[in-house]
Every structure is written in C-alpha cells, then in structure tokens.
Amino acid sequence: MELIKVTTEVVPHVALVEINRPKEMNALNIQVITELVGALKEMNSDDRVRVVVLTGNEQAFAAGADIKQMAEKSEAEMTASDEFRIWDEITRFPKPLIAAVSGYALGGGSELAMMCDFIVAADNATFGQPEVKIGTIPGAGATQRLTHAVGKSRAMELMLTGRFFKAQEAFEAGMVARVFPTSGFMEEVIKLASEIAARPPIAVQLAKRAILDAYEMPLAKGLMEERKKFYSTFSTLDQKEGMRAFLEKRKPNFTGQ
Q1: Residue 21 and residue 65: Cα distance in Å, rounded?
Q2: Which of 76-85's residues contact partners 24+ apart within 8 Å by CB, and which partners?
Q3: pLDDT value at position 91?
Q4: Would you list the DSSP string of 54-120?
Q5: Is 162 assigned a catalytic role?
Q6: Range(s) for CATH 1.10.12.10 in the chain?
Q7: pTM (2 decimals)?
C-alpha cells in the first residue's frame, strides 16, 4: 500500500500529495516521511509542477506520530536513528508547499503542517501538541515554529498543557493563513494553489526564500538578501513579460523562464 498518493492532473501546475493511512488516522512514521520526501523530490524535478498541496483526509491530516514505533526505544536508540533528520528535507523543498488541514493535526501532524510554507484549514480542523501528556516534548520543530507563529506566551500555554485548539483559534493566533468550510474545502484550497501557480515561478520561489530568511537572519542581512533576489528577477523573461503586460494593460503569460 502506498502511504503517499500523488496526483498532478487536478489543475495545471498544481500537485496534490495525500497522506494515505486512513485506518491509523494518518499517523506518521519513518516510512510515511520517507515516501513524502521522495515524492517532493520528484515534484521538484517536474517543471509542470509549480505548487504542491499536502493533505490527508477529512478526518485527519495526521493524528500524530506512530507511538508504537518509539514507545520502548532508549535515548541511545533515538539518538542513533535520528529519524527527524529526514524531516529536514521537507523544509528544503524550494517550490510553494501548502498544508491543507482537515480534521486532526496533532503532535507530529501539526509539526508537519508547520513545516509547509503556510497552512490552510477546514473549519473542522483540530490542532495540538499533546506530547507532554505522554511524557515527552515535541521533537519535529513545534517548540520553535509554533513559538514563531503564535508568540511565546500562547506557545507556552499550548505546549505545557497539551490542549487541542480549533481552526479559528489557530487562524486568530497567526498559525493558519485561511479557514474554509469543510464542505468544498479542497476545491477552495486548489483554487488558492492555482492562483499561486499562475504567478511567475522563479519570482514565487525567490519570494518564498526571502520570507524564510526573515526567520533565519538578522534584519540587516535579510534586507540585503532580499535586494539581491529582487535584482536577480531582472534576468528572467517573466519579469520582462510581467512589466510589459502591466504597461500594455493585458494579462501576462508567464513561462517560468
């Protein structure tokens, strides 16, 4: 059974990547993440794909990590295997990666969603970092990414209690970009992804990288990197086409060059 399903025929330039462990509420294990990383590498080398949407099903985006795989492991075994190392590959994917969250996104599922460039949630979505309830802490980035997203005080409250929170609270806190009704959710997500896919792909990827730089660099360095990326767009055909179309009051035709 494939743990990751990939569909590229829904709309032009948008790939749909689906976590496929419905009986386990899409619980994440090393096999799922390995397949996901492999799928993203294929999408990166496919020029037809400009935007990727990562999703689960209506009941669960991913309801945490597969506890059975780690419950009896020792510190030495966890350190030696370092299974979260492969998760880092997801954050290196250069094209826009949207998490479409319906149902539960808990523990590692919430962390996986936060690794994406932004999260779009159905109004039935439930997030949470309940690791403290089973004697551990988040290990795939929540202490860092959730804190960046919602601030220290709220991140402390959420992770020290392990409480679940709904899509609207996640949106109001800044963790989620958009909330759509569960009915017709994926249609709205695909529409949003298509809007991004219609933009010039080189500029989109540069903008993504520049935004990520804001989290990783001091302000002065980030501003200089932004300026370099801005100037580099003037070597692309899409920049010429975009500005000419603006001046000629017509719709641009972006080719990714």
Answers
A1: 12
A2: 83/30, 83/33, 84/139, 84/140
A3: 94
A4: EE--SSEEEESB-GGGTTT--HHHHHHH-GGGTTHHHHT--S-EEEEE-SEEETHHHHHHHHSSEEE
A5: no
A6: 201-247
A7: 0.93
User: Looking at the chain, which residues constitute the CATH 3.90.226.10 domain(s)?
Assistant: 4-197
Mean pLDDT value across the chain: 93
Q: What is the pLDDT of residues 87-129, one digit of tens each?
A: 999 999 999 999 999 999 999 999 999 999 999 999 999 999 9
Question: Which tens digits make up the pLDDT trace of 21-55?
Answer: 998 999 998 899 999 999 999 999 999 999 999 99
CA torsion angle for 52, 50, 38, 117 (degrees, to 10)?
-50
Active site residue 256: no
Kindly write down the DSSP assignment for every residue of 119-130, as one continuous string: EEEETT-EEE--
Answer yes or no: CATH 1.10.12.10 is held by domain 201-247. Answer: yes
Q: Which fold has domain 4-197?
A: 2-enoyl-CoA Hydratase; Chain A, domain 1 (3.90.226)
Choosing from 56, 64, 103, 108, the catalytic residue is 108
SS3 7: strand
131 tagged catalytic? yes
* Annotated active-site residue in 65, 121, 122, 210: 65
The verdict on whether 105 is a catalytic residue reads: no
The tens digit of pLDDT for each residue in 175-232 reads: 999 999 999 999 999 999 999 999 999 999 999 999 999 988 999 999 999 999 999 9
Look at strands 118-122 and 60-63 and give their pairing: unpaired
